Amino acid sequence: MSITAADDQAGSPETAPDALAGFTIGVTATRRREEFCALLERRGARVVSAPAIRLVPVAEDAELLAATRAGLTAPIDDVVITTGVGFRGWMAAAEGWGLSGELAEHLASARLLTRGPKARGAVRAAGLTDHWTPPTESCEEVKQYLLAQDLRGRRIAVQLHGEPLTGFVAALREAGAEVIEVPVYRWLPYRDVSPLRRLISQAISGGVDAVAFTSAPAVLAMLNSARAEGLEDALIAAFAGPVVAACVGPVTAAPLEARGVPTVQPERSRLGTLARTLARHLPRHSVTRLTAGGHRLEIRGHAVAVDGELKPLPPAPMAVLKRLADKPGHVVARSDLRTVLPGGPSRDSAEHAVEMAITRLRRALGPSGIVETVVKRGYRLACDRNEGL
Protein backbone atom coordinates (compact mmCIF):
# COMPACT_ATOMS: atom_id res chain seq x y z
CA MET A 1 0.00 0.00 0.00
CA SER A 2 1.36 3.42 -0.94
CA ILE A 3 0.32 6.94 -0.06
CA THR A 4 0.90 9.25 -3.02
CA ALA A 5 1.26 12.94 -2.29
CA ALA A 6 0.51 15.60 -4.85
CA ASP A 7 3.05 18.31 -5.55
CA ASP A 8 2.87 21.03 -2.90
CA GLN A 9 1.15 24.29 -3.52
CA ALA A 10 3.29 27.35 -2.96
CA GLY A 11 2.84 28.84 0.46
CA SER A 12 1.22 25.82 2.08
CA PRO A 13 2.18 25.44 5.76
CA GLU A 14 3.70 22.00 5.15
CA THR A 15 6.27 23.50 2.77
CA ALA A 16 7.40 26.30 5.07
CA PRO A 17 11.19 26.57 5.52
CA ASP A 18 10.95 24.79 8.89
CA ALA A 19 8.34 22.17 7.91
CA LEU A 20 10.70 19.33 8.85
CA ALA A 21 12.16 20.96 11.96
CA GLY A 22 12.25 18.45 14.80
CA PHE A 23 12.30 15.41 12.51
CA THR A 24 15.18 13.05 11.78
CA ILE A 25 15.34 11.45 8.33
CA GLY A 26 17.65 8.68 7.19
CA VAL A 27 18.98 8.93 3.62
CA THR A 28 20.27 5.80 1.87
CA ALA A 29 21.13 7.42 -1.46
CA THR A 30 24.54 7.25 -3.07
CA ARG A 31 24.03 9.28 -6.24
CA ARG A 32 23.13 12.93 -5.61
CA ARG A 33 23.28 12.27 -1.87
CA GLU A 34 24.54 15.74 -0.98
CA GLU A 35 21.85 17.39 -3.08
CA PHE A 36 19.04 15.39 -1.50
CA CYS A 37 20.34 15.89 2.05
CA ALA A 38 20.50 19.64 1.40
CA LEU A 39 16.86 19.65 0.23
CA LEU A 40 15.80 18.10 3.53
CA GLU A 41 18.08 20.20 5.72
CA ARG A 42 16.79 23.41 4.13
CA ARG A 43 13.37 22.41 5.45
CA GLY A 44 14.79 21.99 8.97
CA ALA A 45 15.32 18.21 9.07
CA ARG A 46 18.13 16.48 10.90
CA VAL A 47 19.62 14.10 8.32
CA VAL A 48 21.34 10.76 8.97
CA SER A 49 23.32 9.81 5.85
CA ALA A 50 23.87 6.07 5.37
CA PRO A 51 24.77 5.16 1.77
CA ALA A 52 23.50 1.64 1.11
CA ILE A 53 25.00 0.83 -2.28
CA ARG A 54 27.74 1.72 -4.75
CA LEU A 55 27.79 1.71 -8.53
CA VAL A 56 30.06 -0.58 -10.55
CA PRO A 57 31.46 1.47 -13.47
CA VAL A 58 29.96 0.13 -16.69
CA ALA A 59 33.22 0.25 -18.63
CA GLU A 60 34.64 -2.33 -16.22
CA ASP A 61 31.65 -4.68 -16.50
CA ALA A 62 32.31 -7.72 -18.68
CA GLU A 63 28.61 -8.69 -18.53
CA LEU A 64 27.59 -5.47 -20.25
CA LEU A 65 30.17 -5.99 -23.00
CA ALA A 66 28.95 -9.54 -23.58
CA ALA A 67 25.30 -8.41 -23.72
CA THR A 68 26.15 -5.60 -26.12
CA ARG A 69 27.95 -7.94 -28.49
CA ALA A 70 25.05 -10.39 -28.30
CA GLY A 71 22.64 -7.65 -29.25
CA LEU A 72 24.73 -6.63 -32.25
CA THR A 73 24.66 -10.09 -33.85
CA ALA A 74 21.29 -9.32 -35.50
CA PRO A 75 18.76 -6.47 -35.76
CA ILE A 76 16.93 -5.52 -32.57
CA ASP A 77 13.17 -4.93 -32.74
CA ASP A 78 12.54 -3.29 -29.36
CA VAL A 79 14.74 -1.77 -26.66
CA VAL A 80 13.35 -1.15 -23.17
CA ILE A 81 15.27 1.71 -21.54
CA THR A 82 14.60 1.91 -17.81
CA THR A 83 16.90 4.74 -16.65
CA GLY A 84 18.51 7.76 -18.24
CA VAL A 85 21.80 7.36 -16.37
CA GLY A 86 21.97 3.72 -17.40
CA PHE A 87 21.38 4.50 -21.07
CA ARG A 88 24.04 7.21 -21.07
CA GLY A 89 26.44 4.83 -19.35
CA TRP A 90 25.74 2.16 -21.97
CA MET A 91 26.49 4.54 -24.82
CA ALA A 92 29.67 5.79 -23.10
CA ALA A 93 30.87 2.24 -22.49
CA ALA A 94 30.18 1.25 -26.10
CA GLU A 95 32.25 4.21 -27.25
CA GLY A 96 35.14 3.02 -25.09
CA TRP A 97 34.91 -0.42 -26.65
CA GLY A 98 34.76 0.99 -30.20
CA LEU A 99 31.16 -0.22 -30.62
CA SER A 100 29.25 3.08 -30.38
CA GLY A 101 28.58 3.46 -34.12
CA GLU A 102 27.28 -0.08 -34.52
CA LEU A 103 25.16 0.17 -31.37
CA ALA A 104 23.66 3.50 -32.48
CA GLU A 105 22.68 1.96 -35.85
CA HIS A 106 20.89 -0.92 -34.15
CA LEU A 107 19.10 1.42 -31.76
CA ALA A 108 18.06 3.78 -34.58
CA SER A 109 16.25 0.95 -36.35
CA ALA A 110 14.52 -0.35 -33.18
CA ARG A 111 11.48 0.83 -31.26
CA LEU A 112 12.83 2.55 -28.14
CA LEU A 113 10.45 2.20 -25.17
CA THR A 114 11.49 4.54 -22.37
CA ARG A 115 10.22 3.99 -18.80
CA GLY A 116 10.06 7.67 -17.87
CA PRO A 117 11.02 11.25 -18.80
CA LYS A 118 14.68 10.88 -17.75
CA ALA A 119 15.15 7.83 -19.93
CA ARG A 120 13.35 9.59 -22.79
CA GLY A 121 15.56 12.65 -22.39
CA ALA A 122 18.71 10.54 -22.53
CA VAL A 123 17.52 8.86 -25.74
CA ARG A 124 16.79 12.19 -27.39
CA ALA A 125 20.10 13.65 -26.21
CA ALA A 126 21.82 10.77 -28.04
CA GLY A 127 20.10 11.85 -31.28
CA LEU A 128 17.67 8.94 -31.26
CA THR A 129 13.88 8.84 -31.41
CA ASP A 130 11.80 7.35 -28.62
CA HIS A 131 8.72 5.36 -29.58
CA TRP A 132 6.62 5.28 -26.38
CA THR A 133 6.72 6.17 -22.67
CA PRO A 134 4.15 4.94 -20.12
CA PRO A 135 2.36 7.65 -18.15
CA THR A 136 2.99 5.81 -14.89
CA GLU A 137 6.78 5.50 -15.37
CA SER A 138 6.51 1.81 -14.43
CA CYS A 139 8.10 -1.30 -15.89
CA GLU A 140 4.81 -3.12 -15.39
CA GLU A 141 3.05 -0.86 -17.89
CA VAL A 142 5.89 -1.32 -20.40
CA LYS A 143 5.49 -5.08 -20.01
CA GLN A 144 1.74 -4.93 -20.57
CA TYR A 145 2.26 -2.70 -23.62
CA LEU A 146 4.56 -5.29 -25.18
CA LEU A 147 2.45 -8.30 -24.20
CA ALA A 148 -0.55 -6.76 -25.95
CA GLN A 149 1.34 -7.34 -29.23
CA ASP A 150 2.53 -10.45 -31.05
CA LEU A 151 6.06 -10.93 -29.74
CA ARG A 152 6.85 -14.24 -31.45
CA GLY A 153 10.28 -14.00 -33.08
CA ARG A 154 10.97 -10.43 -31.92
CA ARG A 155 14.37 -9.56 -30.46
CA ILE A 156 13.99 -7.32 -27.42
CA ALA A 157 16.84 -5.76 -25.43
CA VAL A 158 15.92 -4.90 -21.83
CA GLN A 159 18.19 -2.50 -19.94
CA LEU A 160 18.30 -3.55 -16.31
CA HIS A 161 18.52 -0.99 -13.50
CA GLY A 162 20.63 -2.63 -10.85
CA GLU A 163 18.52 -5.71 -10.17
CA PRO A 164 17.27 -8.49 -12.48
CA LEU A 165 13.81 -7.92 -13.95
CA THR A 166 13.04 -11.61 -13.64
CA GLY A 167 9.26 -11.52 -14.03
CA PHE A 168 9.41 -8.92 -16.79
CA VAL A 169 11.90 -10.91 -18.86
CA ALA A 170 10.18 -14.25 -18.23
CA ALA A 171 6.82 -12.89 -19.44
CA LEU A 172 8.36 -11.65 -22.71
CA ARG A 173 10.10 -14.97 -23.32
CA GLU A 174 6.89 -16.90 -22.63
CA ALA A 175 5.24 -14.72 -25.29
CA GLY A 176 7.82 -15.92 -27.83
CA ALA A 177 10.36 -13.09 -27.77
CA GLU A 178 14.14 -13.46 -27.72
CA VAL A 179 15.21 -11.27 -24.80
CA ILE A 180 18.69 -9.84 -24.30
CA GLU A 181 19.25 -8.63 -20.75
CA VAL A 182 21.53 -5.60 -20.67
CA PRO A 183 23.08 -5.08 -17.20
CA VAL A 184 24.05 -1.46 -17.77
CA TYR A 185 25.21 -1.05 -14.21
CA ARG A 186 25.30 -3.17 -11.12
CA TRP A 187 24.85 -2.18 -7.52
CA LEU A 188 27.03 -3.60 -4.78
CA PRO A 189 26.88 -2.96 -1.01
CA TYR A 190 28.57 0.26 0.05
CA ARG A 191 32.16 -0.35 1.14
CA ASP A 192 31.62 1.01 4.66
CA VAL A 193 28.49 -0.70 5.98
CA SER A 194 28.67 0.79 9.49
CA PRO A 195 26.51 3.88 8.74
CA LEU A 196 23.77 1.64 7.29
CA ARG A 197 23.91 -0.65 10.31
CA ARG A 198 23.57 2.35 12.61
CA LEU A 199 20.59 3.60 10.61
CA ILE A 200 18.92 0.18 10.91
CA SER A 201 19.38 0.34 14.70
CA GLN A 202 18.03 3.90 14.81
CA ALA A 203 14.98 2.94 12.77
CA ILE A 204 14.20 0.00 15.06
CA SER A 205 14.69 2.07 18.23
CA GLY A 206 12.70 5.05 16.96
CA GLY A 207 15.74 7.28 16.54
CA VAL A 208 14.58 8.36 13.08
CA ASP A 209 11.13 9.42 11.92
CA ALA A 210 11.55 8.41 8.27
CA VAL A 211 13.94 6.70 5.90
CA ALA A 212 14.09 7.95 2.31
CA PHE A 213 14.90 5.57 -0.53
CA THR A 214 15.80 6.59 -4.08
CA SER A 215 16.39 3.14 -5.61
CA ALA A 216 15.15 -0.42 -5.18
CA PRO A 217 18.71 -1.76 -4.74
CA ALA A 218 19.14 0.54 -1.72
CA VAL A 219 15.98 -0.91 -0.18
CA LEU A 220 17.24 -4.45 -0.77
CA ALA A 221 20.67 -3.60 0.61
CA MET A 222 19.12 -2.30 3.84
CA LEU A 223 16.87 -5.34 4.20
CA ASN A 224 19.76 -7.71 3.47
CA SER A 225 21.98 -5.94 6.00
CA ALA A 226 19.24 -6.17 8.63
CA ARG A 227 18.72 -9.86 7.83
CA ALA A 228 22.44 -10.56 8.30
CA GLU A 229 22.15 -9.09 11.80
CA GLY A 230 18.93 -10.96 12.60
CA LEU A 231 17.00 -7.67 12.58
CA GLU A 232 14.91 -7.84 9.40
CA ASP A 233 11.62 -8.58 11.17
CA ALA A 234 12.23 -5.74 13.64
CA LEU A 235 13.03 -3.35 10.79
CA ILE A 236 9.90 -4.34 8.86
CA ALA A 237 7.86 -3.81 12.04
CA ALA A 238 9.36 -0.33 12.47
CA PHE A 239 8.44 0.59 8.88
CA ALA A 240 4.96 -0.81 9.39
CA GLY A 241 4.64 1.30 12.53
CA PRO A 242 6.12 4.65 13.52
CA VAL A 243 8.91 5.00 10.91
CA VAL A 244 7.85 6.34 7.51
CA ALA A 245 9.31 4.58 4.45
CA ALA A 246 9.47 7.28 1.78
CA CYS A 247 10.25 6.07 -1.75
CA VAL A 248 10.93 8.13 -4.85
CA GLY A 249 8.60 5.96 -6.95
CA PRO A 250 6.81 2.61 -7.34
CA VAL A 251 9.88 0.72 -8.60
CA THR A 252 11.80 1.75 -5.50
CA ALA A 253 8.86 0.94 -3.24
CA ALA A 254 8.20 -2.54 -4.69
CA PRO A 255 10.54 -4.55 -2.37
CA LEU A 256 8.97 -2.94 0.71
CA GLU A 257 5.38 -3.26 -0.45
CA ALA A 258 6.02 -6.93 -1.28
CA ARG A 259 6.66 -7.32 2.46
CA GLY A 260 3.49 -5.48 3.42
CA VAL A 261 5.20 -2.20 4.31
CA PRO A 262 3.18 0.97 3.56
CA THR A 263 5.17 3.57 1.67
CA VAL A 264 4.84 7.28 0.96
CA GLN A 265 5.61 8.35 -2.61
CA PRO A 266 5.49 11.60 -4.58
CA GLU A 267 3.34 11.76 -7.69
CA ARG A 268 6.45 12.48 -9.77
CA SER A 269 9.61 10.43 -9.26
CA ARG A 270 11.99 13.27 -8.47
CA LEU A 271 14.22 14.10 -5.50
CA GLY A 272 12.67 17.53 -5.10
CA THR A 273 9.13 16.17 -5.00
CA LEU A 274 10.21 13.43 -2.59
CA ALA A 275 11.57 16.09 -0.22
CA ARG A 276 8.36 18.09 -0.54
CA THR A 277 6.28 14.98 0.05
CA LEU A 278 8.11 14.34 3.32
CA ALA A 279 7.61 18.00 4.25
CA ARG A 280 3.87 17.51 3.78
CA HIS A 281 3.49 14.05 5.29
CA LEU A 282 5.49 14.20 8.52
CA PRO A 283 3.89 17.37 9.96
CA ARG A 284 0.44 15.97 9.16
CA HIS A 285 0.88 12.41 10.38
CA SER A 286 3.82 12.34 12.81
CA VAL A 287 3.05 15.29 15.10
CA THR A 288 1.07 15.16 18.36
CA ARG A 289 -0.72 18.45 19.04
CA LEU A 290 -2.27 19.30 22.39
CA THR A 291 -2.64 22.05 24.99
CA ALA A 292 -1.14 21.56 28.44
CA GLY A 293 -0.94 24.10 31.25
CA GLY A 294 -2.37 26.69 28.86
CA HIS A 295 0.44 26.21 26.33
CA ARG A 296 0.25 24.77 22.81
CA LEU A 297 2.53 21.77 22.29
CA GLU A 298 3.58 20.14 19.01
CA ILE A 299 5.55 16.97 19.74
CA ARG A 300 7.82 15.91 16.88
CA GLY A 301 10.57 13.34 16.47
CA HIS A 302 13.34 14.88 18.58
CA ALA A 303 11.83 18.24 19.52
CA VAL A 304 8.72 19.89 20.87
CA ALA A 305 7.32 23.26 19.84
CA VAL A 306 5.98 25.20 22.82
CA ASP A 307 3.73 28.04 21.66
CA GLY A 308 5.53 27.90 18.32
CA GLU A 309 9.08 27.88 19.72
CA LEU A 310 10.97 24.72 18.80
CA LYS A 311 12.87 23.11 21.67
CA PRO A 312 15.09 20.09 20.94
CA LEU A 313 14.94 17.38 23.61
CA PRO A 314 17.43 14.67 24.61
CA PRO A 315 16.22 11.08 24.14
CA ALA A 316 15.14 10.40 27.76
CA PRO A 317 12.98 13.54 28.27
CA MET A 318 11.50 13.07 24.78
CA ALA A 319 10.59 9.45 25.53
CA VAL A 320 8.89 10.51 28.75
CA LEU A 321 7.00 13.34 27.03
CA LYS A 322 5.71 11.03 24.28
CA ARG A 323 4.55 8.51 26.87
CA LEU A 324 2.70 11.21 28.83
CA ALA A 325 1.16 12.44 25.57
CA ASP A 326 -0.20 8.97 24.80
CA LYS A 327 -2.87 9.67 27.45
CA PRO A 328 -3.19 13.45 27.81
CA GLY A 329 -4.30 14.45 31.28
CA HIS A 330 -4.06 10.93 32.70
CA VAL A 331 -1.56 9.95 35.37
CA VAL A 332 1.31 7.78 34.15
CA ALA A 333 3.06 5.79 36.85
CA ARG A 334 6.81 5.99 37.37
CA SER A 335 7.05 2.27 36.68
CA ASP A 336 5.47 2.85 33.27
CA LEU A 337 7.78 5.76 32.45
CA ARG A 338 10.77 3.65 33.45
CA THR A 339 10.05 1.21 30.60
CA VAL A 340 10.42 3.89 27.91
CA LEU A 341 13.75 5.30 29.08
CA PRO A 342 16.61 4.64 26.63
CA GLY A 343 19.10 2.09 27.90
CA GLY A 344 16.70 0.44 30.35
CA PRO A 345 17.99 1.53 33.80
CA SER A 346 18.19 -1.06 36.56
CA ARG A 347 15.41 -1.25 39.12
CA ASP A 348 17.61 0.42 41.76
CA SER A 349 18.30 3.44 39.58
CA ALA A 350 14.94 3.53 37.77
CA GLU A 351 13.13 5.97 40.05
CA HIS A 352 16.04 8.38 40.05
CA ALA A 353 16.32 8.12 36.24
CA VAL A 354 12.64 8.96 35.82
CA GLU A 355 12.94 11.93 38.18
CA MET A 356 15.98 13.21 36.29
CA ALA A 357 14.17 12.83 32.96
CA ILE A 358 11.17 14.75 34.31
CA THR A 359 13.44 17.49 35.66
CA ARG A 360 15.22 17.84 32.31
CA LEU A 361 11.89 17.80 30.47
CA ARG A 362 10.46 20.62 32.58
CA ARG A 363 13.64 22.63 32.17
CA ALA A 364 13.57 22.18 28.39
CA LEU A 365 9.87 23.03 28.05
CA GLY A 366 10.36 26.36 29.84
CA PRO A 367 6.94 27.43 31.15
CA SER A 368 5.91 25.81 34.42
CA GLY A 369 2.69 23.89 34.87
CA ILE A 370 2.90 21.75 31.72
CA VAL A 371 3.97 18.57 33.52
CA GLU A 372 2.32 17.96 36.87
CA THR A 373 3.43 15.66 39.70
CA VAL A 374 0.70 13.51 41.26
CA VAL A 375 2.05 12.55 44.68
CA LYS A 376 2.71 8.83 45.14
CA ARG A 377 1.18 8.07 41.74
CA GLY A 378 3.26 9.54 38.92
CA TYR A 379 3.06 12.40 36.43
CA ARG A 380 0.59 13.85 33.96
CA LEU A 381 0.33 16.51 31.31
CA ALA A 382 -1.88 19.33 32.61
CA CYS A 383 -4.62 19.10 30.02
CA ASP A 384 -8.20 17.92 29.59
CA ARG A 385 -8.28 14.12 29.84
CA ASN A 386 -10.35 13.88 26.67
CA GLU A 387 -7.82 15.75 24.59
CA GLY A 388 -6.13 13.63 21.95
CA LEU A 389 -8.32 10.59 22.68
From TrEMBL:
Name of protein? Uroporphyrinogen-III synthase
InterPro entries linked to this entry: 4pyrrol_syn_uPrphyn_synt_sf, 4pyrrol_synth_uPrphyn_synth, OmpR/PhoB-type_DNA-bd, Sig_transdc_resp-reg_C-effctor, UROS/Hem4, WH-like_DNA-bd_sf
User: Gene3D superfamilies recorded for this chain?
Assistant: 3.40.50.10090, Winged helix-like DNA-binding domain superfamily/Winged helix DNA-binding domain
Keywords from the UniProt entry: DNA-binding
Q: Would I find DNA-binding among this entry's keywords?
A: yes
What the entry lists under SMART domains is as follows: Trans_reg_C
DNA-binding region in chain numbering? 287-383
Question: Which source organism does the UniProt entry give?
Answer: Streptosporangium longisporum
> What Pfam families does the database record attribute to this sequence?
HEM4, Trans_reg_C
